[in-house]
């Protein structure tokens, strides 16, 4: 199915973009879940119109304002965004594709630092989707470095496909793993070693573990991994005053477009991105008539 607009991220910027594009009669799909940093904030005192409000309540009010509109929401994870000319193809973790005339990236930023040599060995023994790439390691040994609930699901899944799975728990205590998975629960992943590809995971303690492949599963990917040809500045997506990126029809808003990391700034940028995406979509439709 092809939508007018796909929005990656369901935080303040993404929801603002969805609202402002939907009221202009565009078909919209939003990928993502509630912003963890927002819903965990106990008190917000600098949001205009509220003297003091919790992040959880503010988030609920954001979502309530969208309930009367027909917007599609999906918790599917986007692996890669491909610019196809007059539309974008969004590759889902499931292997399926969603098409959209325009796309807004509003997925926030990954504030966790990369492991040593993680960027160097990306796609060279290191992957961010075990479900996607597990078949490449059938009968071999892999290591999953897990930072979230999804990583547990990924480890349990690939345990039925590969030869051996070790799970480095960077998430929380008392996780439920497939009996086939070896749990490493008392180490901190530090970095990778290898020649042409990642061959060894090194822990902060100095301990090492060898494997044929490594999966790093965390909440968000670097922008350049999501959109390989995206232009960055200071590790954020570079945008102009219209929230447009260097790729025609692709916009970005919120924390991923730069500091300050503020809710009001994200909402405003989401509005701008939504309005300018609508303008772009209208021009595309006019030119195709």
Automatic annotation (TrEMBL):
Domain of life: Bacteria
Gene3D superfamilies, alphabetized: FAD/NAD(P)-binding domain
Keyword terms: Flavoprotein, Oxidoreductase
Organism: Anaerococcus tetradius
Lineage: Bacteria, Bacillati, Bacillota, Tissierellia, Tissierellales
One Gene Ontology term of the molecular function aspect: oxidoreductase activity
Domain FAD/NAD(P)-binding: 3-270
Protein name from the UniProt record: Pyridine nucleotide-disulfide oxidoreductase
């Amino acid at each position: 199915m092809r939508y007018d607009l796909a929005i990656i991220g369901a935080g303040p910027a993404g929801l603002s973009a969805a609202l402002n594009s939907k009221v202009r009669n565009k078909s919209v799909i939003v990928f993502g879940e509630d912003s963890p940093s927002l819903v965990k904030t106990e008190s917000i005192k600098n949001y205009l119109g509220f003297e003091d409000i919790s992040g959880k309540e503010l988030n609920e009010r954001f979502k309530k304002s969208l309930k009367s509109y027909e917007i599609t929401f999906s918790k599917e994870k986007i692996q890669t965004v491909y610019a196809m000319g007059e539309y974008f193809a969004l590759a889902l973790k499931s292997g399926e594709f969603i098409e959209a005339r325009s796309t807004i990236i509003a997925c926030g930023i990954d504030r966790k630092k990369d492991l040593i040599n993680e960027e160097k060995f990306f796609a060279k023994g290191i992957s961010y989707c075990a479900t996607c790439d597990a078949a490449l390691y059938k009968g071999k040994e892999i290591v999953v470095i897990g930072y979230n609930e999804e990583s547990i699901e990924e480890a349990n899944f690939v345990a039925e496909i590969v030869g051996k799975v070790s799970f480095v728990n960077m998430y929380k205590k008392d996780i439920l793993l497939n009996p086939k998975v070896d749990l490493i629960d008392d180490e901190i992943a530090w970095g990778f070693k290898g020649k042409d590809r990642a061959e060894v995971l090194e822990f902060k303690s100095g301990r090492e573990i060898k494997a044929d492949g490594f999966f790093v599963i965390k909440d968000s990917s670097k922008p350049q991994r999501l959109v390989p040809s995206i232009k960055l500045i200071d590790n954020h997506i570079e945008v102009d005053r219209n929230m447009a990126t260097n790729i025609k029809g692709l916009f970005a808003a919120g924390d991923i477009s730069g500091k300050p990391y503020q809710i009001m700034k994200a909402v405003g940028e989401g509005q701008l991105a939504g309005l300018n995406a609508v303008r772009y979509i209208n021009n595309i439709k006019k030119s195709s008539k």
